[in-house]
Amino acid sequence: MYLAELTSHRFVELREQGVNTVLIPIGMLEAHGEHCALGTDTLIPREFARRLEPLVGDKVVIAPEIPYGHSWGLAPFPGTLDIPGQVFADYVTAVGTQLVKQGFRYVILLNGHGGNMAALTLVSERLSDLGAVVLSINWWVDYRDLIVEHAPEFGHAGEDETSCVLAIDPKLVEMEYAHRHISEAPKKIRFRGLQKLTYPHANNGDATKATAEKGEAIYKALIPAILRDIEEMWSYTPNA
Questions:
Q1: Phi and psi torsions of 181, nearest 5°
Q2: 124: domain range?
Q3: Pair 60, 99: CB distance under 8 Å
Q4: Is 17 among the domain residues?
Q5: Is position 240 within any domain?
Q6: Is 206 helix (H, G, I), strand (E, B) or coil?
Q7: Are 110 and 26 in contact (CB under 8 A)?
Q8: Is 58 inside any structural domain?
């Protein structure tokens, strides 16, 4: 079920039936190499949500996605819209708070962007303090052991992400611009200009190895893992 497609009357019916779980796809608009769509970090969570809907759509309501996030690391590149981390955290908290007030007691934050992770940790703690049970999923990190079986050259706009976008729609990728870059820049140090030292072409990993078939394999491998995490989330009782 998609929240935006429900009438108010149908929404009340679902609440009365005990449907109390909401999934929020969260992404970013930023450069993904010179080859991948700017909305890669939103497109992939959207695709996971689409594939989950037939499996848990009677128990989980899918909220409209949040397509903007925080990306200091890619801010200098064309097409990146970098929202300050605190602003982003406050906004997602406000959205989540309203969903909790509307009766959702289980909240799934399905995130597609690394720069959002710190802020979403804060969001999950804030919503937990409101009594919700919060499941935070960062798909490329949480399920990396499953991903590398199909795409070992993981990274920003690397083999894994590019493959996942190709599986959605090959028209969203221009493989002639894909290339390999493995960053050796320091991870614990920040200074002006670090971004283009780390990602000279706005990507990391080997995008040249990406295929739609690998992307399809990643989706098929991760969906059961996500379902297991949702089941585990439901084993905890909200403090409403």
A1: -150, 125
A2: 3-234
A3: no
A4: yes
A5: no
A6: strand
A7: yes
A8: yes
Decide if 239 is inside a domain. Answer: no
The structural domain count of the chain equals 1
Q: What is the predicted pLDDT for the residue at 58?
A: 93
First to last CA, the chain: 23
Question: What is the dihedral angle through the alpha carbons of 11, 14, 19, 23, rounded to the nearest 10 degrees?
Answer: -30
Confidence of residue 236 (pLDDT cuts 50, 70, 90): very high
Structure tokens at 229: 């995490």
Give every CB contact of residue 32 below 8 A, 6+ residues apart in sequence. Answer: 38, 40, 41, 156, 157, 161, 162, 202, 203
Pairing of strands 205-206, 180-181: antiparallel
For the segment 140-198, what is each residue's pLDDT rounded down to a tens digit? 999 999 999 999 988 899 999 999 999 999 999 999 999 888 776 666 787 777 777 77
Residues 61-109: tens digit of each pLDDT: 999 999 999 999 899 999 999 999 999 999 999 999 999 999 999 999 9
In angstroms, what is the C-alpha Rg of the chain? 18
Ordered strands of the 60-62 beta sheet? 60-62, 21-26, 106-111, 133-138
The residues that bridge with 60 in the sheet, in sequence order, are: 21
CA 140-166-231 angle, 5° bins: 40
- CATH of residue 204's domain is 3.40.50.10310
- Give the closest residue to 151 by CA, choosing from 159, 142, 143: 159
What are the start-end ranges of the H helices in the chain? Answer: 8-16, 40-56, 85-101, 117-129, 139-142, 144-147, 159-168, 194-198, 212-234
